[in-house]
Design goal:
single chain, mainly beta, eight-stranded mixed sheet, 5 helices, 9% helix
Length: 403
């Protein structure tokens, strides 16, 4: 008979059976939360049906969902039997063209019905860009270990991903954090991430070819446009194909324009914004590193052990693409793939209580405080390795200090 805020969490272990879980029906009458869905300027009235969702603010659980037909004149909605508490409402439009969504609206139910809630559907944002490829230099390409890197680069073999950042907002905003939008580039390397809710997005790419590594993910600062004057297809202005450019030409092109690091800083998108100018640069000659974590003498390896890779060069300290993490197996073995050639420091750490409480939708390596501490620990541990282009380093012995 408690309220949701006072509910007790039950922990159930594998094979365990909990008993005497007695539930009393409180029998409250409940109240209604009602309102209507409106359309932002430029959203065609004939195209829009909508799904309206009510979330409990404290837990983020879905309390109710209702649908509005495209031919509904009033676009009204109502949720009945709602207990006292704080809630967040949002709506998603469904149509043949680009989707729409409504910014969350917070309501408090305190002993009475809540009426007149207005949810405004606005177009979702998009981000367009292209993938560039940097081949090996002639000297490295001639090395026997780099023969596999000579295969023809195919842009469609990678997946560009945009992840929405977390934040300090309400539970619904946190629930939406970390949602992924993915796109496979065209044969010319162009990609378009569609239907992005407003917020800040960081980009990366999933590589299926272990001979490639992600060199940079940037955005030209003057490339974003709003929905009023953007190309509705999201296409970028034609430019010379970077897949055929030499490494030095590509580097000069990047240096000639002010850019934002989309991997570390990301880009903030407004509702309906059509952003363009993202450049995902992949390079040939990726290295691989594998090995095993060895515990201190007389000690066993801790559970939930993770191995971190930190760039040794100080000038790379803020390059998040040079950081990596991977879980160690029960026997302590680990492996990293798609690594940029360079000097690294390694450190193994068990997951702490703080790590487990961390929001899983915000990767730790994107936290500058976490990276700074990780670098200090790695420098103290002094487990160093230098990886050459195309190198397949194995049997690295990683020392695990006393915890």
């Amino acid at each position: 008979s408690t309220t949701r805020e006072g509910a007790v969490e039950l922990q159930v272990q594998t094979g365990q059976e909990l008993t005497d879980i007695d539930i009393r029906y409180r029998g409250d009458r409940g109240h209604s939360v009602s309102g209507a869905v409106a359309l932002a300027q430029g959203v065609g009235a004939s195209q829009v049906g909508a799904s309206v969702m009510l979330f409990h603010s404290a837990t983020g659980s879905l309390e109710g969902q209702t649908f509005i037909a495209p031919d509904s004149a009033a676009r009204a909605f109502s949720f009945d039997g709602i207990a006292d508490g704080d809630y967040d409402l949002t709506a998603s439009g469904f149509a043949q063209a680009d989707s729409t969504s409504a910014a969350p609206v917070h309501v408090s139910v305190r002993g009475a019905d809540v009426a007149g809630v207005r949810l405004t559907l606005a177009p979702l944002a998009s981000l367009a860009g292209r993938v560039a490829y940097e081949p090996l230099g002639a000297a490295d390409a001639a090395k026997p270990e780099c023969q596999q890197s000579k295969r023809v680069f195919v842009a469609q073999e990678l997946i560009v991903r945009g992840a929405r950042e977390g934040g300090d907002g309400n539970s619904l905003q946190r629930l939406l954090a970390g949602t992924l939008s993915e796109a496979s580039p065209s044969s010319s390397g162009e990609f378009l991430l569609r239907n992005l809710r407003d917020g800040r997005y960081r980009l990366d790419a999933r590589l299926t070819d272990e001979n490639l590594y992600l060199r940079s993910v940037t955005l030209a600062t003057n490339a974003t446009t709003n929905a009023a004057n953007a190309n509705p297809t999201g296409a970028t202005t034609p430019t010379p194909n970077p897949a055929t450019a030499t490494p030095s030409a590509a580097a000069n092109a990047r240096a000639s324009a002010a850019t934002v690091d989309l991997a570390r800083v990301g880009v903030a998108l407004k509702p309906g914004e059509r952003a363009a100018g993202a450049l995902v640069t992949v390079a040939a000659g990726a290295a691989r590193l594998s090995g095993r974590v060895a515990a201190a003498e007389g000690e066993a390896l801790p559970n939930s052990l993770r191995v971190y890779l930190v760039p040794a060069e100080r000038e790379r300290a803020e390059d998040v693409l040079r950081y990596a993490e991977t879980p160690a197996r029960e026997d302590g073995s680990f492996a990293f793939r798609n690594l940029a050639p360079g000097s690294y420091l390694l450190i193994a750490r068990p997951l702490t209580e703080t790590d487990t409480r961390r929001d899983a939708r915000t990767p730790p390596l994107l936290d500058p405080t976490f990276r700074a501490q990780l670098r200090r620990d790695a420098e103290a541990a002094k487990n160093a390795v230098a990886l050459q282009p195309c190198e397949r380093a194995a049997d690295f012995a990683l020392r695990l200090g006393r915890q």
